[in-house]
Amino acid sequence: MTRILDVRKLYFRIGWPKCGEIDIVEAVGNSSSWVSFALHGPEYSGGSKVGRSFINRDPLSSAFHRHGILWTPVEISWTFYGEVMQTSNNSFIGDRTWVFDSPKFILLNVAMGGTLGCEISPKFSSTKLNIDWLRVSTTGQSGELIRE
Known about the structure:
Blueprint: H1 4-14, E1 21-28, E2 31-40, E3 50-55, E4 67-72, E5 75-80, E6 83-89, H2 90-93, H3 114-117
Antiparallel strand pairs: 1-2, 2-3, 4-5, 5-6
């Protein structure tokens, strides 16, 4: 059994983006209706990530939303309110390295600044990340849920 601590150690030993990152949802504060989801890996990160973005009809802050992924070792599909919005797999990323067939850990955060988030206003003082619920489950076909 792979423990969460072992996965974190692997993350720090291999480093980002070689370890892989699955963004279930990314949003930009100065564009309140813009939604993005992405994969970051050894040859595809930052501006060259694999993913998709779209404009939601309402600002993301107007209500809670249902974002999700269906993840197997060979394929990842992103969902928005249960509708599959994009599917990525080995053939989708071409000759780049697929690193999503190994354990990962969940990180919920507010990332600020950088190339996606743009410059942070000097008047900025605080923000909130409100999460109503988070559900993680296995399909019975693959995966193992480890709680620590």
